[in-house]
Amino acid sequence: MKVLHSLAFALIAASAAGAQAQTSKDGMSSMQPPAAGQPAAVMMTDAVVQKIDTANGVIVLKHGDIPNLAMPPMTMGFDVADKKMLDSVKPGDKVRFHVEVVKGKPTVMHLEPAR
Ligand SMILES: [Cu+2]
Fold first, then answer.
1. What is the dihedral of CA 39, 94, 17, 70, to 10 degrees?
2. What is the whole-number distance in angstroms between the Cα of residue 77 and the centre of ligand 1?
3. Which of 13, 33, 54, 89 shows the greatest Cβ crowding within 10 Å of its Cβ?
């Protein structure tokens, strides 16, 4: 698991750098695929919380398939739409979440306990 965590944080660092570069492109949606307008509420993905970084608003999830992002199962860090989401979960929790690409970054829009 240590290796996975290190990898996840490397990815977080890389995506954070990318986000800063893209901040000036706010309002431009050319990066968004047309499919972004599809109904997304039903696209919940199962995951297990690996680590929570409240200060930076990042959650590391070992997640299943994410159909709306065409992403296979993996462990990685996500930004969260609202840091308050992180108050209700802890490492080891099974959750269901919905992620969308916001400003070029996969961002957790909804997070709920699963069992
Ligand atoms: Cu992933």
1. -40
2. 8
3. 89
